[in-house]
Amino acid sequence: MLDGTIPYEAQEKYLNIILSETDRLTNLTSNLLELNSFNGDNVLLDITTFNICETIVQTVNTLEGTAAKKEISFVLDYNTQKELLVEADESKIHQVLYNLIDNAVKFSHNNSEIKISLRKKGAKVFVSVKDSGIEFVMIRVGYRGYGTGVLVLDDQFENNIKGAKAAGLKVGAYFFSQALNEAEAREEAAFMLKYLSKYSLDFPVAYDMENFDPNNLRRSLDEIHAVEHAADEKKHDLLNVLAKAFMTPIEREDILQLSQNIDEVTDKIEDVLLRIYYNDIKSIQPDSLALAQVVIRCCEAVKTMMAEFSDFKHSKSLHEHIVRINTMEEEADRLFIDSMYHLHTSCKDPLTVIAWREIYSYLEKCADACEHVANVVESIVMKNS
């Protein structure tokens, strides 16, 4: 603001965005501290009366910079006046809206439109976030989880399917299966019929078959250790070349830091599998798969970024790769928080909670390690520009 980048007439708007984000992150931190005091029957809510329209506008303003990079526009479709008072936990509603709209921005195509609708029906207010390019959704009904073999209904199934239908989307459904025999497969099919019978679907029911085999863990551990060892050898080869080089293209300290951070990525990935192994995990929790997918995408992005980094002075896309990795790390943080909350409120076995808390933590550290690499690359580029 001091240098005039933001015009005077827009300064109040951006100051409000900063204040809103500060409040949101403060509340998010407080919620993390409260997680251990939550259980399925005791969720702490701070009910107040607030204007939901204003909350939506604040959230859109916060994300408009990210949306502008992809040339995404927002359309606020209100069938009511600009003020609609609701009674709810404002900070939690704000966080839900932020997550929904943020994900819509991330997964929308460039030069597209995100429509946010608000309507009142009786004593309830319905908010929908719809990307103009999304035509259908596949909604998870439930899963067989936590090593007990118990069938669990997804706690957001009802909200998700009702919200999708209200938004006019075509709907399909799936079940995360870990059935070991025909009897368990039939049990899962009956479970699906029970909860889907009152809904009409546009697509067939799908099964996501989990192929995790704990008997192969030892072999997988040997394979990942071989990869980690090969990475160590590459780092040692680099250090030997560095020690003998008379001149280097960038500072020696930067090369050393970058190699250590890349090595940290392989170390943390091995750490995840080690904890799955020594905690004797027999089945994979569904939430961990979403987090693992983000880690995979982070690693792929690091590989692409490093290919661009070899000619960083002429690269036109290096900065974009750095930002992409930072964004995915933030996505991993949100998934980590959601996974930990779900674990602590759904799982009653303390040993399972302890084991998966550790595994989730190391999955999140994998994404952190990728971001550390991106941060070092960014620092090197800045120093050598």
Structure commentary:
This protein has 10 helices and 9 strands. It is an alpha/beta fold and 385 residues long. A 4-stranded mixed β-sheet has the order 7-6-8-9. It has a 3-stranded mixed β-sheet with strand order 2-4-5, with helices on both faces. A hairpin with a 2-residue loop joins strand 4 and strand 5 (124-131). Helix 1 packs across helix 2 (52-69), helix 1 (8-34) crosses helix 3 and helix 8 runs parallel beside helix 10. It is globular, with a radius of gyration of 24 Å. Residues 35-41 have low confidence and may be disordered.
Q: Report how far apart the termini are.
A: 25 Å
Question: From N to C, what is the helix and strand string?
Answer: HEHEEHEEEEHEHEHHHHH
- How many strands, what sense, and barrel or not for the largest sheet? 4 strands, mixed
Fraction of helical residues: 55-70%
In what order do the strands lie side by side in the largest sheet? 7-6-8-9
Count of helical segments? 10
Question: Which whole number gives the mean pLDDT?
Answer: 81
Apparent shape? globular
Structural class: alpha/beta
Taking pLDDT < 50 over at least 5 consecutive residues as the criterion, the unreliable ranges are 35-41
The radius of gyration over CA amounts to 24 Å
Number of strands: 9
Report the sheet-strand fraction.
Answer: 15-25%
